Amino acid sequence: MIKAPENFIDADGVRQVFAEAKEGRRDFLRKAFVAAGAAGASAAAPRALATANPVDPQGGDPNILELPEHSRGLGQPVATDGYGKPSKYEANVQRRQSPGLTQTTQASVSFAPLQSLFGIVTPSGLHFERHHQGWWDIDPSKHRLMINGSDERLLKKPMVFTLDELMRLPSVSRFHFIECGANTGMEWGNVAVPTCQYSHGMLSCSEFTGVPLKLLFDMAGVDYKKARYVLGEGADGSSMTRTLPMELVESGEVLVAYGQNGEMLRPENGYPLRLVVPGVQGVSWVKYLRRIEVGDQPYGAKDEVLHYIDLMPDGRHRQYTSIQECKSVVTTPSGGQVLLDKGFYNITGLAWSGRGKIKRVDVSVDGGRNWRSARLETPVLSKCLTRFNLDWVWDGKPALIQSRAMDETGYVQPSYRQLRAVRGTRSIYHNNAIQTWLVQESGEVKNVQLAG
Ligand SMILES: Nc1nc2c(c(=O)[nH]1)N[C@H]1C(S)=C(S)[C@@H](COP(=O)(O)O)O[C@H]1N2
Ligand SMILES: [Mo]
């Protein structure tokens, strides 16, 4: 046991920190703590250190430091775990499936735990999964990528690449979000799921590394005047095939990627090769990519004729909706979480747009009557998740928390009423409406939709 020096850190010392803070955020924080204190709420305001034992905050005598074992003994050796894992205390942070959502667990989805993540990057082991016929761990030495034309006038020289050959070519690395077109699909009719993991978790963001598809097309001698469509094909049993317009490839943004967050793609995410199609719905990001064909018309593959289409109010099906429109969600406080007491909270969330950068995110705590602009954290990148934060003092009364994002084109994320006026209620895909979380007096947070 060590005796703490007199006035080791005193309450005045703590006050001093606040006194030194300039106007603005720090000042807001100070006022928030004072307000919370005056209201008798202490959960958000840390106990002054002088009255707490800094080593064991729950401990008895504030002047006696009882060192825990980890401060006295020898820790674990290096490389016990050749590939590191999260702390055992984080074991509840998992991607989860929704039992009964699909008939088999191979043709299914696991959702990313958005409520537990910070910043913009999704750790690869928590990236959402969407497989139509299960995932594979394909031997990269046997994998090939073929590039061909539907007819020889469209492409001069069909080519087959090994992974080694692709990895010798000039590469680029870029941060992008991927969102399944069906994300938030269960909410079209009414609120369907309790947490943002299930309502918005078919969304992830990684740094992808690979070769621009345009480079491979140039090598193969594509005639860009005639070949206006591109077909990507996967090597799994789902025969995943999607048509892309050639303009996307010509922009240089479409990648044949092998890297994800500094290492090779995970098997669940398409190892060893996948298409990265920034801004476009997930289904077009073909995994286990084995073939790319150029053609002079859309291919009308099963996954673009039967699935990923939108049933409009007039009874017609809208096809080839590919760009994921501007959208956002507050991840804390969000459904399933509990606010322990009134006082200060950091409202945080994610915003993204398939059309470019996020320009602004407004947050309401009263169901859309009043809005305040949130802080956008850097980096703010194109077709990438953007993190936003906003200071909030909860007064203990019911609150309706919403976020509304705007992208650099000026497009503003719609309310459910605005979205349904155009789209009706019979869609499954492409729901980018404003999400509402109800904070109840008990502190419990619920998924709700506002009438009208
Ligand atoms: N080969 C192949 N590619 C595929 C799929 C698939 O089942 N097989 N699923 C698609 C769908 S619908 C989505 S949303 C994304 C999901 O990518 P992820 O599993 O890496 O999150 O992959 C797309 N690419
Ligand atoms: Mo998807």
TrEMBL record:
Residues 51-85 are annotated as: Disordered. One of its GO terms (molecular function) is sulfite oxidase activity. SUPFAM superfamilies: E set domains (SSF81296), Oxidoreductase molybdopterin-binding domain (SSF56524). Residues 136-299 form the Oxidoreductase molybdopterin-binding domain. InterPro entries: Ig_E-set, MoCF_OxRdtse_dimer, Mopterin_OxRdtase_euk, OxRdtase_Mopterin-bd_dom, OxRdtase_Mopterin-bd_sf, Sulfite_DH_SoxC, TAT_signal. Pfam families: Mo-co_dimer, Oxidored_molyb. The keyword Acetylation does not apply. Its cofactor is Mo-molybdopterin. Residues 325-436 form the Moybdenum cofactor oxidoreductase dimerisation domain. Its EC number is 1.8.2.1. GO terms for biological process: sulfur compound metabolic process. Keywords: Metal-binding, Molybdenum, Oxidoreductase. Transmembrane segments: none annotated. PANTHER family: SULFITE OXIDASE, MITOCHONDRIAL, SULFITE REDUCTASE. This is Sulfite dehydrogenase. It comes from Inhella proteolytica. The lineage of its organism: Bacteria, Pseudomonadati, Pseudomonadota, Betaproteobacteria, Burkholderiales.
